[in-house]
Amino acid sequence: MRYHARWVLPITQPPIENGTVVEADGVITFVGPRADAPAGRDYDLGEAILLPGLVNTHTHLELTAMRGFLEDCRFAEWIDKLRQSRNEVLDAEMLLDAARSGVLEGVEAGITTYADTCSTGVAMQAMRELGVRGVMYQEVFGPDPSRADTAMGELESVVDRLQLEQTELVSLGVSPHAPYTVSDALYEAAAHFANSRKLPLAMHVAESEPEYDIVVRGSGDFADRWQRRGIAVGRRARSPIALLEQHGVLERGALLIHCVRVDEEDIEIIARHHCAVAHCPASNAKFGHGIAPLLPLMEAGIRVGIGSDSVASNNRMDLLDEARLAVLIHRAATRRHDAFGAHQALELATIGGARALGLESRIGSLEIGKDADLAAFRIDIPRTTPIGDPYSAAIFALPGRSAELVTVRGRVLVDRGRVLAADESLAKRVRASGAALSSWAARQ
Ligand SMILES: [Zn+2]
Question: How remote is the CA of residue 310 from the centroid of ligand 1, in Å?
Fold first, then answer.
């Protein structure tokens, strides 16, 4: 198939005006000017920008029914309410439907790859059913060190089952959730397990003030919760990143989600262990957690991708919008017009995310031999007319628009603006889950 577009943005090469990407058997076989393209069937996108499929380095697809449900909460209370309502209201079918709905939302926004942390394992099935690419990191929780063995036993049996469900597109990892839900003993056990099974690791870290407080001072909102459960709390480490290092959790080049509260020493540790970072600017800002030091992280040579986080914290999954926000906040925070550009932001949303997940040999840019994961957006609309610089158009003007075309490994998921797997009955079921959550909240 020959995909023609006004602008082709390979990302690792300069933009091509009137360009063509040729796909055969799911693989890119040509990227260049339309005039030079080899013969084939034509798919003319017309006035459109054609990009590599976007890579979302942090999602919680199973929480899609919680959009708008947990607004303006104090962080620890947000976590409490999320966990309690998920356990009491959402059954396995509802969580699976939420994950399916999350994937469809992402596909509509041009996202072809998902790095999903999941407590129930449903995201893997949703990604497989809908034909997208991703890594699902099975979460493990447990602040009580005396229960670390039990938590690991449960993790192992889930991993044994899910490992059989891996495909060429969807793979499995492990996620010890966060310093305020995971004991030191559980961190060590999870790291050891991931090493022995050769599974990738991802985890939330250095996100919030109460997380910092429980790790560094043994006090604060999360420390209070541990104490109420009879779990000993004391100073655990110099910083959340140091905590992970000291328990061997950084050994496998883990994907570190957030990294808002990291200092120079932490950045040095992250770089030394070849870890990657999922930068989630909207979630961090909406919670009032702060702004991650994106530029120092990148200057240290750390692989960085962009993540939307769950719609329970962000309310939307739109990676171009997330990339736009990254440019705006880092320019605003540094008072520098040249701090971070549209091209760099688009890199983070594509090849940067691919590198963060170790998938850069397959995806993240339009190059011969890579898989045909594509996303195209129309530009013959008022918001992008005239277009000017195509990178700026993609980052500053396009966000919020639905994709015109999405393919994963050559398979078309969005065709002429239509999400082929769109399902009105699914949307109805997810709305019903949202209503069930609201009535649960009203009873509290
Ligand atoms: Zn998260």
Answer: 6
Average confidence (pLDDT) over 109-125: 97
Domains of the chain: 2-52+366-419 (2.30.40.10), 54-356 (3.20.20.140)
State residue 261's pLDDT score: 97
Ligand 1 centroid vs 58 CA: distance in angstroms?
Answer: 7
Output the CA 202–ligand 1 centroid distance in Å: 10
pLDDT, mean of residues 25-36:
98
Q: Rounded CA gap, 377 and 396, in Å?
A: 13
Q: Are 306 and 352 in contact (CB under 8 A)?
A: yes
pLDDT band at 251 (very low <50, low <70, confident <90, very high): confident
* CA separation, residue 401 to residues 169, 341, 397 (Å): 26, 20, 9
Instruction: Say what angle helices 75-89 and 424-443 make with each other, to 10 degrees.
Output: 110
Q: Is 252 a residue whose pLDDT tops 90?
A: no
d(CA 6, CA 68): 38
What is the distance in A from the centroid of ligand 1 to the CA of 172?
17
- The number of C-alpha atoms within 13 Å of 63 and in the hemisphere containing its C-beta is 30
Q: Where are the beta strands (DSSP E) in 54-159?
A: 54-59, 111-118, 133-140
| Cα-trace Rg, the chain | 21
Rounded to the nearest angstrom, the distance between the alpha carbon of 66 and the centre of ligand 1 is 13
**pLDDT given for residue 42 in this prediction:** 98
At 201-245, the pLDDT tens digits run 999 999 999 999 999 999 999 999 999 999 999 999 999 999 999
CA 277 to centroid of ligand 1, rounded, Å: 12
CA of 309 to the centre of ligand 1 (A): 5
Gap between the Cα atoms of 292 and 181, Å rounded: 22
d(CA 76, CA 63): 17
**What per-residue confidence (pLDDT) applies to 306?**
98
How far, in Å, is the centroid of ligand 1 from the Cα of 59?
Answer: 6
What is the distance in A from the centroid of ligand 1 to the CA of 71?
A: 16
Query: What region, left, alpha or beta, does residue 72 occupy, with left being phi > 0 and alpha being psi -120 to 50 degrees?
Result: left
Q: Are 329 and 85 in contact (CB under 8 A)?
A: no
For 294-333, list the strands marked E by DSSP: 303-306
For residue 133, what are its two tokens? Answer: 């690419």
pTM of the shown model:
0.98
CA angle 225–96–348, rounded 5-degree value: 75
Write out the two tokens for 378: 């129309």
Q: CB under 8 Å to 80, separation ≥6 — which residues?
A: 225
Token pair, residue 174, equals: 């492990």
